[in-house]
Amino acid sequence: MFKSYHNIQTKTLGSIFLASTLFLTACGASEPKDSVKSAADAIVNKAKVAESTTVTKVHEKVAQTEAKSTSLSTKKAAVATPSDNMGGSGTYANGKFVIDGGVTYPVKNGKIASYAANTQEKKGFTYGRTPTKNEIAAWDIDVMPDGTGLPEGKGSVEEGDELYESKCVSCHGDFGSGGGGYPSLAKGNAYEGQKTLKNQRLKPDDDGPVRVFGTYWAHASTLWWYVKTGMPHPAPMSLSNDEVYALCAYILSINEMEIDGEELDDEYVLDRAKFLKIEMPNKDGFIPNIDGKDGLENVRAFYHDTSNYGNGTRCMKDCFEGKAKIQPITIEMKEFNPPLSKVKDLPKEGANGAAKVTEGQKIYEKSCAVCHGNDSMGAPDLGNKEAWAKVMKPGIDTALKNAITGKNAMPPRGGTSLKDDELKKAIEYMYSKSK
Ligand code: HEC
Ligand code: HEC
Question: Is the pLDDT of residue 25 over 70?
Answer without folding.
Answer: no
